[in-house]
Structure to design on (385 residues):
């Protein structure tokens, strides 16, 4: 039997992640993964081409071995950097000819929106339909199999990014011997981790990674806006290294082992020793002392997010805040944010075996995006045997 696999590639500032999945009922079955820590990526962009390339190659190889799938094509996730989000409309006429709408018509109308972009140096990487209008009469979310005589219109959200950023990432990926089948922005991807109620009421996704904190706001079923702050896990580790007078690598280990983001709940009994720079011996600290450093940086990140939401004109987040990404592994992160807002807060961790860590949210939601578009356009993109 022919099987269809969906493979996503997330080139993160801390690690490259690949997931091989397949559609399973209404969800995704994870067949294998790969992850490689790298210094070749900064702020979600290629910083050192050769180092990044090696990390991508290694990760694809690991995922291929783990899954037993020969990886030739991937869905590439794009970070929300240099990204613009706006609305557009487009219509294809049928001029009185009775037409049964199929995936091809939907593809043309979305392609029409893509072609409207005339901002130099930018490239449209996502067109997500918000509603289709058949014959100027019926508003539908999926017009496939409906008959139209006049027109098919779409109102869609558009995600555009910097052309050179996109070209360089794709060049790096394709130099590893795989094709980029499609590109999905995290701005669109995160919607798949929200419950129908959250996405209806207005929910804010916060992905705190290594260099980037990405923020997306979703309401009435669709992406409204998204943006990024260049402050995340790396800033926390740097603060720890400075305050505890130790190396960055030591600080990273301490953060992961003893870190706590909420001072009020951190333990003053939990004591650890830290190797000192330019001094013999170790110094002792408690988790509570450590939490003071982490809390103040995490708080700064959240305050910047509130500013960002305000700039976007968003005043109500009735669906709550959903925190994810590697930094949300920190104990107390949920309590800290809950202390700062009145709305509901939850940490999102993917549920599939093998990827039950919040750092896999972006990669698995890239697969969801691939599946969404396959279903909308009525075809299966990936063929592997
Ligand atoms: P970015 O999205 O910023 O480009 P990335 O996607 O590679 O980077 P993630 O994999 O989501 O980032 O997260 C990596 C970050 O998570 C690192 O800064 C790391 O220190 C932090 N992290 C991972 N595990 C823990 C933990 N247990 N406690 C605290 N921080 C953690
Ligand atoms: Mg990331």
């Amino acid at each position: 039997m022919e099987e269809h696999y969906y493979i996503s590639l997330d080139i993160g500032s801390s690690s490259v992640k690949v997931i091989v999945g397949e559609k399973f009922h209404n969800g995704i079955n994870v067949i294998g993964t790969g992850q490689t820590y790298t210094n070749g990526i900064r702020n979600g962009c290629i910083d050192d081409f050769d180092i990044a390339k090696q990390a991508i190659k290694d990760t694809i190889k690991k995922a291929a071995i783990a899954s037993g799938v020969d990886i030739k094509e991937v869905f590439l996730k794009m970070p929300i950097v240099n990204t613009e989000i706006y609305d557009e409309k487009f219509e294809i006429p049928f001029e009185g000819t009775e037409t049964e709408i199929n995936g091809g018509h939907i593809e043309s109308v979305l392609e029409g929106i893509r072609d409207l972009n005339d901002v130099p140096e930018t490239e449209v990487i996502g067109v997500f339909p918000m509603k289709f209008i058949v014959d100027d009469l019926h508003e539908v979310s999926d017009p496939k199999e409906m008959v139209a005589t006049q027109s098919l219109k779409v109102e869609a959200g558009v995600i555009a990014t910097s052309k050179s950023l996109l070209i360089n990432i794709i060049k790096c990926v394709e130099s590893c011997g795989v094709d980029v089948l499609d590109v999905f922005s995290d701005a669109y991807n995160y919607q798949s981790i929200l419950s129908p109620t959250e996405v209806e009421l207005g929910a804010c996704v916060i992905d705190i990674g290594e260099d980037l904190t990405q923020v997306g706001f979703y309401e009435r079923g669709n992406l409204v806006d998204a943006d990024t702050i260049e402050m995340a896990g790396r800033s926390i580790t740097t603060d720890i290294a400075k305050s505890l007078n130790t190396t960055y690598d030591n600080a990273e280990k301490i953060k992961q082992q003893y870190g706590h983001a909420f001072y009020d709940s951190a333990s003053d009994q939990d004591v650890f020793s830290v190797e000192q720079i330019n001094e013999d011996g170790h110094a002792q600290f408690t988790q509570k002392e450590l939490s003071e450093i982490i809390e103040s940086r995490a708080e700064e990140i959240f305050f910047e997010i509130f500013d960002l939401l305000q700039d976007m004109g968003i005043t109500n987040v009735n669906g709550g805040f959903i925190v994810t990404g590697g930094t949300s592994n920190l104990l107390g992160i949920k309590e800290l944010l809950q202390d700062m807002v009145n709305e509901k807060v939850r940490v999102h961790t993917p549920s599939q075996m093998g990827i039950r860590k919040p750092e896999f949210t972006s990669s698995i939601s890239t697969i969801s995006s691939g599946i969404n578009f396959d279903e909308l356009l009525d075809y299966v993109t990936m063929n592997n045997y």
Remarks:
- The radius of gyration is 22 Å.
- Residues 117 and 254 are 47 Å apart (CA to CA).
